[in-house]
Every structure is written in C-alpha cells, then in structure tokens.
Amino acid sequence: MPMLLIKGSYHVIGARPDGDTVHFAPDDIAAWSLVPGPHKVEHNAAGRAKLRLDAVDALETHYSRTGPEVHQPLRFAREARDELLMWLGFTHVQRQENETVTAAAPQTVPGWILTRGAGRDHRCIALAGKGAPPGTSGTEIMVDPELLKTTANHHLLAAGLAYPTYYTNLFPDLRDELTAAAHRAQAPAKGLWTKDVTTSGATVTGISSLTEDAGAVILPKLFRRLVDYLNLGDPDLSGFEAFLAQAQDRFWILSTGHHTTGLDAVVEVLDSKVRMTHPAEDLVFEET
What we know:
This protein is 22% helix and 27% strand.
C-alpha cells in the first residue's frame, strides 16, 4: 500500500511516551502539510508532534478521558513502553513520578515514519522505523510485508507486548502479516498473552479490578470503554452492553464478513464477567 515517508527524529524528554505513542519531528517541518486526510497533524513550532503507532494498541499507562487518570496493570504497560524506546535507540531513560521523561541518552534518535493520515485527536498515525529510510522523505512509497517487518509496530506485536487493532485504511496484506506476528506471540504465549483474558472473560467489580497489578489484562479499547462506563458512577454491568451500543463503534468482523455498529455485538456480560466474543485481530474498525 502507498504511504507517505517522512524522515526525522524521535523525542522523549518532557513527554510521557507509552507503548504505542512517542513524539516525532520531521527534518523538514513542511512535511506535516503533506500528510493526507481530513485531520491535520498538531505540532509545535519546532515540528514536534505526537505519533500514534498504527495497528497496535499497548496497555494504557495513563488514561483520563472521562475521569481521574488510571492505568492498566503496569507490568505489561511499562514493558511495552520500555521496549519501544529501547527499540528506537533510547537508553538510560529517567522519569518523574508521573512518568514524564526528564533525561535520556541520546536526547533524540533519528528515524522515519510511514503514514496515511492523522486521527481526530490530531496525532499522526504511522508505522515507525529506524535507521536509513527506505526512500525519499516527502514522497509516497509502497509498503509491503517485508518493509512492515522492519517497523516498531511489527516488533511490538511479535514481542507479545501489544494487541493488534485494525482500521480500514490498512491494506489486507499488511494486516495479515501483523496478525501472523501476533499469533506467533500467542503460541507459546509470551508477554501480555500469558495473562490476557479478553476472550476468556474478565471479572469486573470496579475500576480497581482493571487497574491494580493483579487486575485483568484486556484489549485497551475494551478497557477504555469499561472505564468510561464505570465513571458514570454505577458498578452494575447490566447496562454495559447498552452503553456500548450508544458509542456506535463501526467495524467489520472478518471471520463472518459482517459489518456492524456497536461493540455490544462482540461483547458478552454475565453478572460481573465481561468478555469479547471475537479476538482483536478479527475486527477492523472504520476511521472516524
């Protein structure tokens, strides 16, 4: 699939990177204006912007959209973050208590990204690479599974430290390669797959059952929906499926070829137990 190649550098000081988000600045700030799609990349005067890794979702280290900041069980959330920064080339990372990075060696790391657009939150959604770029910055190049294998996105799935989370802008051949990497990490299980209960079922009696060290390890998208629901003030999950229907996520179920609206179509609630009836890699969400 064709994607825009941008050469630049990764930045972490003053930021709170996690397992699927890091800051990036192009060598030529004008490159941001080349990113296609309806949403513009938000950046500062130096060109530094938030980069969201395409097709992967790591456990949340800080989430606060509808209430106080919370996180998923930190072992795998931090392992994904640390693995991403180490893969990019950062070492000796020092942080404040709130996980804001205060120092790293080196302070910036050269690299490149491949993108087809930004999200509604104006973060650039991209494949993240390091080393020599595979083409000329500012031009579109064809991305195939072999090039995909050189990215941080593929690496995190292969390491079992992120869930595949797909949107319709990703071509099927790339999606298939990422799914294959995730499946190899699942058998034998490594990383978060050793504790994942997304499809087997998570017992949810309150937000703490999703956030404590012994809490449920689940797909971050499901975690965020559960937190948003619980922040309404009632731990009774009998209304969770209706809540999901109201959110109106639109997606395809690959195994059935069915297009539907609302995660309630793939989530079951039995008393205090919540599970997804399809694995993450079987869903392809529409961009919003």
